[in-house]
Amino acid sequence: MSDGVQAFLTEWHRIVSEKDLAALPSMLAEDISMGAPPYWAKLQGRDLVRHLLGLVIHTIEDFTYQREWLDGNELALEFTGHVGEVDLQGIDLITLDEHFAIRNLDVLMRPVNGVIRLRETIAPQMAEYLSRGGGSVA
Amino acid sequence: MSDGVQAFLTEWHRIVSEKDLAALPSMLAEDISMGAPPYWAKLQGRDLVRHLLGLVIHTIEDFTYQREWLDGNELALEFTGHVGEVDLQGIDLITLDEHFAIRNLDVLMRPVNGVIRLRETIAPQMAEYLSRGGGSVA
Number of folded domains in chain B? Predict the structure, then answer.
């Protein structure tokens, strides 16, 4: 593993575990794209993705990273957690750019009712954010 | 990568690409467990999982493996495909046993409407199979 990937992972795990959202933007490329579990269309741009990730980090309880796979600048980080009584298993598929910032993040989760529960919690907050002029959806 | 993992991957890709379901059981441990996208409860046992995987392979169109991560006997295989006009991105998280057969397979997919479309197609066929006495759900 390169020093850059190692440094990324150490800081990423710290941010998620401490919910240090102020440090999140430095981990995201300005033109980051994100494939979220509910929708096919990618979310575009650092501000929008940062906002969504902040909501996710605060909504999934007992968020814990599990298995980890690394292949150059392509990372796969499995996680578990729950929303209320609904258990979740998910994976972050991360592509880092040459500065070790996230260029693309796809998040896949199971089961369906967990994704729907998460969406029900987060979608109104995202809609409120978007209505204030934040971000864009491709 | 060990020779056993390499041999597993070569045969797995062949089976999926040729839809060679007759060769599938030899890749699955007898006590395999599978976490499917729609449900939290794990499916248990070679016959049940083989049947479900057969339905999946025949239902997802243009099923194509993409990125691949390997870490000892833990594999993560990303795929894309579609069900009708609904695009899918998914990942197979595979744990191999000491004989390089699948001991556990978790399948995570996005987006939600793709998983629901897949479930709508497959669930009736699985129910029909279970009503004939096939397999069990933990």
Answer: 1
Residue A55: alpha-carbon gap to chain centroid: 10
B contact test, residue of A1, A112, A116 with most B CBs within 10 A:
A112
> Quick check: B89 and A35 CB within 8 A?
yes
Q: pLDDT, tens digit, for every residue of A93-125?
A: 999 999 999 999 999 999 999 999 999 999 899
- ipTM tops 0.85: yes
Which domain covers residue B30, as residue numbers?
A: 3-137
Calculate the CA dihedral of residues B75, A75, A41, A83 and round it to 10 degrees.
80
Considering only CB atoms, A112 lies closest to which of B35, B106, B115, namely: B115
Domain holding B67: CATH number? 3.10.450.50
From the list B35, B110, B113, the residue facing A89 with the nearest CB is B35
Name beta bridge partners: A110. A89
Task: Tell me the whole-structure pTM to 2 decimals.
Answer: 0.94
Contact check, Cβ <8 Å, A109/B108: yes
**Tokens found for residue B65:** 């493996």
